[in-house]
UniProtKB/TrEMBL annotation:
Its EC number is 2.8.4.5. Keywords: 4Fe-4S, Iron, Iron-sulfur, Membrane, Metal-binding, S-adenosyl-L-methionine, Transferase, Transmembrane, Transmembrane helix, tRNA processing. This is Threonylcarbamoyladenosine tRNA methylthiotransferase. Residues 182-414 form the Radical SAM core domain. It comes from Rhynchospora tenuis. It is an enzyme of class 2 (transferase). NCBIfam families: MiaB-like-B, MiaB/RimO family radical SAM methylthiotransferase.
């Protein structure tokens, strides 16, 4: 018998969101034992002590999904469960899924199969099970719906006992005050609403997230007060469509934004980033939105998906705006907000898209030269109207995607910044583990070499070189609270490179109308370049014993000089490098040299004694 929703089972219990309900309040599907197990008399499962196991959490998709995972991890941690990044170490896997495109769902299916092969208990959350409840891959696993994240402890507990639990629907939004374990302690992803008002023909996320449901302004203001007091330095407003906020509760986005910025510290230590918004719902508020974007504590950045430069294609997508509407949004914001940065999305090869339609899209992108364009091929999602439309041949879709990517990569949006001084807010470590990632007021990514103690601070930098995806800066004056001079001597000038993908920040936002997606950006293929370090390598050898110094200089200096300068500079960020310790191979080679020298001396002594005997 299929187990359905359990809202009716717990409706009268009155438990606050996030609190663990009694076990008998959870509808479960006990796992049936095989006939062989019953004959052997084996128990269904070994008794477990709840809250003592280790959980692996994997997240696919958008920033809203990431926030949901952080809330689930927070509740599990608060109840006593340990969290791990190593799936092999975990007693249970929790997979938070994304249904935007086929590749993300395929990756989920692969991970589920791997988990089942490893015989690990599994809980699947997110948009896939919510939007496709009968999916074959979900057979025999526990499921949490997108609005049931405050029940994760119960589901995990029952799943570890061998039961199958399925929770889907509810009548209220999850509380914003649940325990939370942030992926980045300096960044709070704050969902302001769920669902949307659109009905795009290609969107599967609408099936999962549903109709618009907005949090109240008071609840969001309280949350901002809390996270600021906790030391958060960057707040991302997340939503399937930020511009639609409040239309279901009698308010609007400008009212919310003006209430939130009043709670931000006047010293600009915490910045606000507005999430993705579709054109229709901000057209009537452009002047108010521009005023907010000009606020000192708000990034002058907005993600506005256009999806196509052709009105007939937008009509087929049911996007509810025209290309001229999109142009009005972009043109108005660019005029009213100095340094405004706008990112957009394009779907290549939507059913019915002609060569002329695609040419109009290319022309639009060329005209504005957007610094960030998320380019995606069309993927038909089961159950959507677009999946039944006549498709453009896949060869042609890929060709158009490559052509638009080439056009986009020909832009040089940051060239004028070289030599300028910019204020940046530093919140992350780059993927290379060496640079710190900061953002300008326009949310342009700047990479600097500086100590980790500068995370969560703001500083002025001089832009020393410009890459296609990022710019590179040198800190002008390190704050006095960072006394480690050794780490500041290696501030370097960087050649053009992409060390931390914009995908990490921007593709967590929406590439399709009703979801913030992690789309296939065109910005993922440039290789890292090396760093020219100012510090002289000879400083490494100061204070060593002369004999060891001589041996190392003779035999290992060339190898050390041959290391990439990026590796040599990495000690400015983390104290993980043992630059003053010789590797095991070095000691092995020294040992061989020493034994060889001793042997040679012995041979010479022996030869001398024989010679003198004559």
């Amino acid at each position: 018998m299929e187990v359905g929703d359990i809202e009716d089972a717990v409706a009268g219990l009155g438990a606050p969101p996030g609190l663990r309900l009694p076990i008998n309040a959870v509808a479960v599907k006990p796992k049936r034992r095989s006939r062989a197990d019953r004959v052997r008399g084996e128990p269904l499962s070994t008794p477990l002590v709840p809250g003592t196991q280790t959980i692996y959490v994997k997240t696919f998709g958008c920033s809203h999904n990431q926030s949901d995972s952080e809330y689930m991890a927070g509740q599990l941690s608060a109840f006593g469960y340990s969290l791990t990044d190593e799936p092999e170490e975990a007693d249970l896997w929790l997979i938070n899924t994304c249904t935007v495109k086929s590749p993300s769902q395929s990756a989920m299916a692969t991970l589920i199969s791997k988990c089942k092969s490893a015989k690990k208990p599994l809980v699947v959350a997110g948009c896939v099970p919510q939007g496709s409840k009968d999916l074959k891959e979900l057979e025999g696993v526990s499921v949490i719906g997108v609005q049931q994240i405050d029940r994760v402890v119960e589901v995990v507990e029952e799943t570890l006992k061998g039961h199958e639990v399925r929770l889907y629907s509810r009548r209220t939004l999850p509380s914003l005050d649940l325990p939370k374990v942030r992926k980045n302690k300096f960044i709070e992803i704050l969902p302001i609403n769920v669902g949307c008002l659109g009905a795009c023909t290609y969107c599967k996320t609408k099936h999962a997230r549903g109709h618009l449901g907005s949090y109240t302004i008071d609840s969001l203001v309280d949350r901002v007060k809390t996270v600021v007091s906790e030391g958060v330095k960057e707040i991302w407003l997340s939503s399937e469509d930020t511009g639609a906020y409040g239309r279901d509760i009698g308010t609007n986005l400008p009212n919310l934004l003006n209430a939130l910025i009043k709670e931000l510290p006047p010293d600009r230590s915490t910045m606000l980033r507005i999430g993705m918004t579709n054109p229709p719902f901000i057209l009537e508020h452009l002047k108010e939105i521009a005023d907010v974007l000009n606020h000192p504590c708000v990034y002058s950045f907005l993600h506005v998906p256009v999806q196509s430069g052709s009105d007939p294609v937008l009509t087929a997508m049911n996007r509810e705006y025209t290309v001229s509407d999109f142009r009005k949004v972009v043109d108005t914001l660019m005029v009213l907000v100095p340094g405004m940065q706008i990112a957009t999305d394009i779907i290549c090869g939507f059913p019915g898209e002609t060569e002329e339609d695609f040419a109009q899209t290319v022309s639009l992108i060329k005209e504005y030269e957007f610094p960030q364009v998320h380019i995606s091929q069309f993927y038909p999602r089961p159950g959507t109207p677009a999946a039944r439309m006549k498709k453009v041949p896949s060869v042609e879709v890929k060709k158009r995607s490559r052509e638009l990517t080439t056009v986009f990569e020909s832009f040089s949006p940051y060239q004028e910044m070289k030599g300028c001084t910019e204020k940046i807010w530093i919140t992350e470590i780059a993927t290379d583990g060496i640079h710190l990632v900061g953002h300008t007021k326009g949310y342009i990514q700047v990479l600097v070499i500086a100590p980790e103690s500068m995370l969560g601070t703001s500083t002025d930098v001089k832009i020393t070189s410009v890459g296609r995806w990022s710019v590179f800066g040198e800190i002008l004056e390190e704050p006095s609270l960072h006394p480690n001079k050794e780490t500041t001597r290696n501030i370097s000038k960087i050649n053009t490179a992409k060390l931390s993908s914009p995908k990490d920040e921007l593709c967590n936002e929406d590439a399709f109308c009703c979801t913030n997606t992690c789309s296939s950006c065109a910005c993922l293929n440039e290789k890292n370049s090396s760093v020219k370090t100012k510090e002289a390598l000879d400083d490494r050898y100061e204070g060593r014993v002369k004999f060891a110094h001589t041996i190392q200089s003779l035999f290992f200096r060339r190898r050390r000089l041959g290391k990439s300068s990026v590796e040599k500079s990495s000690k400015t960020v983390a104290e993980k490098r043992g630059d003053n310790k010789l590797a095991y191979l070095d000691w092995f080679l020294i040992g061989i040299i020493f034994l060889g020298s001793v042997t040679m001396v012995a041979v010479l002594i022996k030869f001398s004694s024989i010679l003198f005997s004559f």
